Structures are given as structure tokens and as C-alpha cells.
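Convert to structure. Protein one:
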Amino acid sequence: MTGITRMPQPGPDSLLAMVDEAFDLAQEAARGAAEFFARNQAAKVDGVSECERELDRIDREYDDQLGPALSGAKTQRVTELLAGLKLTIDLERIGDLLLSCVTTGAAVADKLETDELHDFIRMCSILEQTLGAVHDAYRTRNLQEAMSVLKADAEIDRLRNLIVLRQLESSSSAPHAIHVVSIAQALERAGDHVRNAAEEIAHLCTGRSLRHARHAGEKKSDEQMYIERMKKQYGR
């Protein structure tokens, strides 16, 4: 009787390699988005879309293969694999948000003002840089590098707030204003997912969650307090 040759099951090492690939793809998507807003090239939209599809594939494959990989794994490896799951989810979401940004941007590209484009390029560039820093922190288990990303995320929040304020205070409400705010909000949410990844790596390094301690001492910016007052005033 001829025996059946079975393919080896994917192991923990191959799963963790997927995390590295996901980081590279998310960083490539952020770079592509920055280049799109700088040059308005349709090919950059296609590039970000391809990164998003690959991130989605990795997310599905990681989820499918995680159960067998956890079976019989030692405690430390289980911790690493579960952290990898959370990271791939955040990175996949970043891909979704960046694709949303460039597709929206492509629809209103000829209406975007220079200052709006400049802010979007800056936000995408920060995302690319912080994704690279988080990836380095993940590979080296470097707590200080992960913590530095938590501080850098505040700049994306500040830029989002300034974009929203500019639209609110504009003497004439441009028809594309909602798209400008939508792009800014999506980039800010992408920054939140980068921050989540940094927090997960800090947790991986220390065994302790930093999220609650960080939020406890967090202060709101002047722009954020202004936006909250506007929401209360107009019931939004």
C-alpha cells in the first residue's frame, strides 16, 4: 500500500515570520499613501490596495494556523503567538484604513489644498516611521523603542485635530471638507493601531499592560478640548 505523503504543518516559527511580513507590508502601505498624496499617482493607490490584500491574507492564515501551533507550545511561545495574533489584527486594520485614505483622496484629488496635502503626507510619513520603530522593537524586544512610539503618536493626533479645526473655522464650507476630515480621521485611527501594537510589544517585554497606566496620566490637548466643546454645542 502506497503511503500518503503529508505536508508538514506550519509551526510557530512560520507564524511569527508572518508578523514580520505584516509589519513590512503595513510600512509599505504607509509609504505608498504618503507618495500618493505627494504626487497623485494612481499606481500608488494600486500599491496600497495590494498591501491591504496581502495583510488580509496574513490575518486569515495566522488565525487559521494559530490553534495547531498553540498545541503543546511552551508558555513563552504561547505568549509570543498570542501577541502575534494581536499585532496582525492591528496591522491588517492599518492596511484597511490606509486604503480608505488613498481611495477617498483619489476621488477628490483635484480639490485638495496644499496645506491639506502637506498634513496628509506628514501623517503618513509619521505612520511609516513609527511602524518601522515598532517593528524594530518587536524584533529586538526593545521596551524603550516601543515606548518612544507611544509619544510619537501624539503628533498624529495633533495634526488630525488641526485639520478638523481648520475645516470647522473655515469661512466657506468646501464641498470636499467631509472627505478631508474622513481622511484625517482614518489616519488618526491608523495611528491608534500603531500605538496598540507598541503597547502590545511593551506588554510582551515586561509582562505588564501599560495601557491603563498611560491613559490615567494622559492630558487632553487644547485642540481636543475645543472639538469636544463644539460637539456638545452642536449635539454631535
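Protein two, convert as well:
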Amino acid sequence: MYLKKIEEGTRLILEGLGEDLNRPGLKDTPKRVVSMCCEIFRGYDKSKKPIVTCFDNGCDGINYDEMIFDSGYFYSHCEHHMTIFNGDYFFAYIPDKKIIGLSKVARIIDYFAAKLQVQERLNQEIVNEIENVLHPKGCALILRARHFCKEMRGVKKVNGVMTTSVLRGVIKNNAMTRAEFINLSNFKLP
């Protein structure tokens, strides 16, 4: 990242808004924005890409051939307006020869989400990465997110949700397996 440019750009934006850069509350804002950018846009730093550890399927005495499902929360930034979009992810894969540690799924999602994105590409990048590492029989990801570029500006429609999905292999091609994934994605804990 070009940290000096981020700091200078922040100063220009504040000046453009008519703010006084010497005001106590704003004095260190450009430096704070640089720190924030290093943290929330870490997806541009290839050294921050998670190292994905895989295990041989069956190494613990169980050769698993059923769906493995994970869900959680993510946030990213819209590349068109630089506002946040955030929501839930629902991920599943059916292992072949390899399995992945469950925390790695969340780390991969967080890494690819930590840059300016559109939700459709984010979905593709995550599934492509996991498929390239695992070579599973099937892989799927649903992202459901609120987009603040739609809520805070423009049309100003609050609580709308955009849903995107990527289905591959047996999860896409087998109706029963696809239905199992969709059912798990809609399951709510009490």
C-alpha cells in the first residue's frame, strides 16, 4: 500500500469537505485512516494470505464423504462507493482426498473480503481458492449481505439483502445434494 498517498488523500478529502485539519478531533485523523486501511484492506497484502493446511481424508481413521458445512459473518467494502457490505456466509464442501481445518474457511473468506469488492466476484474468488487447495467432490458458497451503498445513499432502501451463490461439482449437479446445502443454509438455531 502507498501509505503516504492514503494520508495525503485523507487530508484532501477533509479539506474538500471544508474541515479544519488543525481542529483537535481531526489532527491525527489522516494517520488513523492509514492504520485503518492497513487493517481492513489487508487483502491487498499477499503476505497476509492465509496458509491453508489440508489433511488427508481418513488420516484419523474416518474417511469422510458427507457434506461439511460452515457458516459465519463477513464484511467487505463496495468498490463502487467504498462503503461497507456485510452479512452471512454459508459454505459447504464434500471432501475427496483432502479435508481442511474449519478455521481456514473463515480465514479465506476474511482475506478475500478485505479489499474493495463486488459480492459476485468475492463469491467466485473464495470458492476458486478452496477448490484449488482441496479439489473436493463438490463445493458451494452463499453470501447474503446488506450493502450500505444502497442504504446510505442513492435509493436509500434499508435492510435489503443481496444473495449470491456459487455451486460446483456434486453440490451443483446432484439435486438431492444441492437441496441439502440449501436446507442447511436456511437452518436457524433457536
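The chain has a mean pLDDT of 95. The first strand starts at residue 54 and ends at 56.
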